[in-house]
Amino acid sequence: MARAAADSPPKGGFSFDLCRRNDMLLKKGVQPPSFRKTGTTIVGLVFQDGVILGADTRATEGPIVADKNCEKIHYMAPNIYCCGAGTAADTEAVTDMVSSQLQLHRYATGRESRVITALTLLKSHLFSYQGYVSAALVLGGVDVTGPHLHTVYPHGSTDTLPFATMGSGSLAAMAIFESKYREGLTRDEGIKIVSEAICSGIFNDLGSGSNVDVCVITKGRAEYLRNHLLPNPRTYVSSKGYSFVKGHTEVLSTKITPLKEKVEVVEGDAMEE
Amino acid sequence: MSIFEYNGSALVAMVGKNCFAIASDRRLGVQLQTIATDFQRIFKVHDKLYIGLSGLATDAQTLYQRLAFRHKLYQLREERDMKPETFASLVSALLYEKRFGPYFCQPVIAGLGDDDVPFICTMDCLGAKELAKDFVVSGTASESLYGACESMYKPNMEPEELFETISQALLSSVDRDCLSGWGGHVLLVTPTEVQERTLKGRMD
């Protein structure tokens, strides 16, 4: 464990030094932990002026809802957004990483990022980890060559489609798209169909739920409509609520530490010679 | 038996009006045997930022030591304390680095940011952040804690009421979990002071 001394900021990438210990635990019969997944219904469609992406907002940890209002539409570039399904840590890490790479690329080239660039960066990263980085993505954006919509699978394969759905609620959402999609939709029609598809996932798939997020990307402008629809408001709150009288809880010991005021150093005038 | 049930733990953090509270149980066990009843799960990063680590106790301590090291380096370089959002990103990156051989810990981070706006967040053992505006829970008692917090939480509570609420939520939840309990430890942080209290709970 001499290398533990070199705990200076790592050079990046994954570190495998706990794998041997975790393997040993696995052999002793200890079950591996379950990671937070995003169950999910994510969708995208191409309309006459650009691309519309949609997602639900439930994050699950096994059968329990861990987050009732998480964000699944990730920013990649001012003109490119990406929805993520699968292991939450993987979707967040991979979209953050590609977003940084795209920004560096924009600085180097001096041009707006293209969707195909983001697609290639994502698929080559996912392929090199052979599906172990479990991220299923719907990538959409508008660049100089026009509107684009792609799906990326955890093993690194991609599809280019006019409308797409991913996640556990994808079948429910695809049913809506297949019956209602047509070419040349207007903005409002597109948002309506996307919202209906996500609602179909929310109400029929147990892994998806809560609210609908929508992102409309057109040439030169991206509009992120966070919580566009809230079809599941909480209606069972007790109006009185619980109120605990002060001193209700039995306390064994108390320690109060006042916080020091942080001293501010103000630049003084120069000394007179 | 899951690796998270080896030691047992319960952690909860709640947001109040310009203040936050973070609470944990105090049991350290080895499966069904209790080894200690004064185990520390909540660690101070700086005056206005605390991190609680649930899950495997050895990984919690190792992870805290690494985070303390990184924060001290940050303080030396930047000559200031880390903001809670930045610290949460640091923890997330440290956990995700071990994606294929993870630390078996679920952190709960609570701090007061600029202008004393409270910040809480939790992560799974791979570093997937969950920012919440009301409460976050972690540990073997998490399912009971979700239920208790959902019903007892009210927005914009004053520090005294927040203390009572978080204590009652913690104590009632750990009573429904064999692997956590044996008292409670609550830290309530306001812009001017830190109140640390030990709770009397069932010792079974």
Computed structural class of chain A? alpha+beta
CATH topology of one domain in chain A: Glutamine Phosphoribosylpyrophosphate, subunit 1, domain 1
The CATH homologous superfamily of chain B is called Aminohydrolase, N-terminal nucleophile (Ntn) domain
Trace the largest sheet of chain B across and list its strands: 10-1-2-11-12
Proportion of helical residues of chain A: 25-40%
The CATH C-level name of one domain in chain A is: Alpha Beta
Task: Give a structural overview.
The complex is a heterodimer of chains A (273) and B (204). Chain A has 273 residues and is an alpha+beta fold. Chain A has a domain at 41-229: Aminohydrolase, N-terminal nucleophile (Ntn) domain (Glutamine Phosphoribosylpyrophosphate, subunit 1, domain 1). Helices cover 27% and strands 29% of the residues of chain A. Chain A has helices spanning 19-27, 88-109, 115-128, 170-180, 187-204, and strands spanning 42-47, 50-55, 59-61, 64-67, 73-77, 80-86, 135-143, 146-152, 158-160, 163-166, 212-218, 221-229, 251-258. In chain A, the strands form 3 sheets. A 5-stranded antiparallel beta sheet of chain A has the order 10-1-2-11-12, covered by helices on one side. In chain A, strands 5-6-7-8-9 form a 5-stranded antiparallel beta sheet, covered by helices on one side. In chain A, a hairpin with a 2-residue loop joins strand 3 (59-61) and strand 4 (64-67). In chain A, helix 4 (170-180) packs antiparallel against helix 5 (187-204). The radius of gyration of chain A is 24 Å and the shape is globular. In chain A, 42% of the residues are buried. With 204 residues, chain B is of the alpha+beta class. Chain B has one domain (3-199): Glutamine Phosphoribosylpyrophosphate, subunit 1, domain 1, CATH 3.60.20. Chain B has 4 helices and 12 strands; from the N terminus they run E-E-E-E-E-E-H-H-E-E-E-E-H-H-E-E. In chain B, strands 10-1-2-11-12 form a 5-stranded antiparallel beta sheet, with helices on one face. In chain B, strands 5-6-7-8-9 form a 5-stranded antiparallel beta sheet, covered by helices on one side. A two-stranded antiparallel sheet of chain B has the order 3-4. In chain B, helix 3 runs antiparallel to helix 4. The longest helix of chain B is centred in the first third of the chain and has 22 residues, at 57-78. Chain B is globular and about 45 Å long. The model of chain B has no long low-confidence stretch (mean pLDDT 94). At the A-B interface, helix 1, strand 4, helix 2 and strand 13 of A face helix 2, strand 9, helix 3, helix 4 and strand 12 of B. Strand 13 (251-258) of chain A pairs antiparallel with strand 12 of chain B.
